[in-house]
Amino acid sequence: MSLPRFYPIFDHTDWLRRVLPLGVKLVQLRIKDLTGEALNAQITQAESLCRTHGATLVVNDHWQAAIDTGATWVHLGQEDLDTADIPAMRRAGLKLGLSTHDHAELDRALSHDPDYVALGPVYPTILKKMKWHEQGLDKLTEWKRLIGDVPLVAIGGMSVERAGGAYAAGADIVSAVTDITLNPDPEARVQHWIEVTR
């Protein structure tokens, strides 16, 4: 199955209730401050919302919770790979997206046969402090050449206005966070995203 071209990331299911009815078909739940039953409840709720709206949910980081709740996708950063049980995830049928920033990380990611590879930050991002400087569009083009048919996600500082350049550079999917969550009208912004990424 080919993945949708627009991939927003949110930190709570309340966001999913707002954006899924607008037509978002691929969404990541990135929860940093919950564990145990509270975390599982959020993931279960998110899965249910996504099923209702015909969307795909990707769980960030929490691979064990993803297995426990019957999720279908998980996204891992490089530091998560240090402790993640990839064989257990695959046995559970989980699809896997992996973050990359340099060639060593890309080689490591590809060794796990990922279902998508993310490169970022393409542009400077305010979302989190990163040791990585902006990667730029040329790096997207290089990554796409190196990974071939594996879907490539552009993330970091992405906006509606920058989406076209990322696609032209080789990205298959563009991911957005603060361009939506910090917008004065998030719903209108999501609708704009959907229009430009059709």
UniProtKB/TrEMBL annotation:
Keyword Cell membrane tagged: no
Parts forming coiled coils: none
Keywords, sorted A to Z: Thiamine biosynthesis, Transferase
Record organism: Roseovarius mucosus
BP terms from Gene Ontology: thiamine biosynthetic process
Cited SUPFAM superfamilies: Thiamin phosphate synthase
Top-level taxonomic group: Bacteria
Pathway where this protein functions: Cofactor biosynthesis; thiamine diphosphate biosynthesis
GO cellular component, one term: cytoplasm
GO molecular function: thiamine-phosphate diphosphorylase activity
Entry's EC annotation: 2.5.1.3
UniProt protein name: Thiamine-phosphate synthase
Chain ranges of the Thiamine phosphate synthase/TenI domain: 12-180
